[in-house]
C-alpha cells in the first residue's frame, strides 16, 4: 500500500503520520522534538526510518508554523528554512503541498466529532458561515474557514502579530514592559507559552512581588493547584486577554460559524477557561455588538492532532 505523508511542524515539535489515499484517517503518528534535528528534512527522514515504510510515500502535505508566500519557507519561531521544490526533490515526491499550520487546523474543523471539541459558553453556530480558528502555543496561530463550493476554503492569516490592545491598567503595564524589551507588543507576546511568562512577570512587578517561576508549565501548574496567587492571577489574565482577542477576531471575520481554539496550551486548562476565567465575558464584551457575539459559540479543540487531520484533507481534492 502506497501511503501519503502528512506533517504538522510547529516551532517546538514536529508531528508526522501516514494516511491512505482512500481517506483522511491518519495513523502511525509520532511527535519529534525539533531541537534534536538540524533541518526539517532530517526530521522527515527520521520519521520515515522509524515508520519502516516498504514503499516510500510519493505524495505529502506539510503544515508549517510560518507564512507560506513563496518557495522559500522561513519558520517564525525557530531557525529552520527550506525550499519547497528542493524538499520535494530530496524526498523523491511526486506531489508536495505546504500550507500554514493553522490553515491545516481550519481544514480539520468539518472532520471533528462532538467529543473532539469542548464548548465554552453559549451560542449556536450558523450553518455555511465563516469559522475562526486560533491557538496559543510556541506562537499564536490564527486562521479561518470561509464558505465555498464545493467545500469551504481555508484562510491563513498572521493575526497573532497584530498589535495588542490593553483593556486596563494592568494590561497596559504588561504591554509597556514588552514594548521596552522588544519595541512592539503583539497579541502573540501575551498569548503564547512565553506570553504567559510575560504576563506573570508583569503581574508580579505590578504587585511588587518577586517572581518564583520561569516556565509557563510551572506557572500554569501553580495556578491550577492553587499554590501561588500571582500564578493564578497570571492564568486568569491570560484567559481574559484570549477572550478579548478572540472576540475581536470573530468580529473581524464575521465568524458566525463559531470560534475554535487549538494549540498546545489551552486544552490543558479548558475547565479553568470555561468556569473560572473571564474568557467568555471578555469575548462578548464589545459594546453595541455584545448580542452579535453572544450568538457565536466558542470551543476548545481537544482532538489530539487536528493539524494532521487538516493536512490529510488536502488529498480529498483529488491530488
Write up this protein:
The protein is α/β, with parallel strands linked by helices. Helix content is 36%, strand content 21%. It has helices at 40-51, 84-90, 101-108, 169-182, 193-206, 216-225, 229-253, 270-275, 279-284, 290-294, 306-313; strands spanning 4-9, 13-19, 26-33, 59-64, 72-74, 81-83, 95-100, 117-120, 131-136, 140-146, 153-157, 259-261, 298-301. A 6-stranded mixed beta sheet has the order 8-13-12-9-10-11, sandwiched between helices. It has a 5-stranded mixed beta sheet with strand order 3-2-1-4-7, with helices on both faces. Helix 3 (101-108) packs across helix 11, helix 5 packs across helix 7 (229-253) and helix 6 packs across helix 7. The longest helix is centred in the C-terminal third of the chain and has 25 residues, at 229-253. It starts with a strand and ends in a 6-residue tail after the last helix. The model has no long low-confidence stretch (mean pLDDT 94).
Describe the structure using short key phrases:
six-stranded mixed sheet; 13 strands; 319 residues; 11 helices; alpha/beta
What shape does the CA trace take? Answer: globular
Order of helices and strands: EEEHEEEHEHEEEEHHHHEHHHEH
Mean of all residue-level pLDDT scores: 94
Distance N to C terminus: 17 Å
Task: Summarize this structure briefly.
This protein has 319 residues and is of the alpha/beta class.
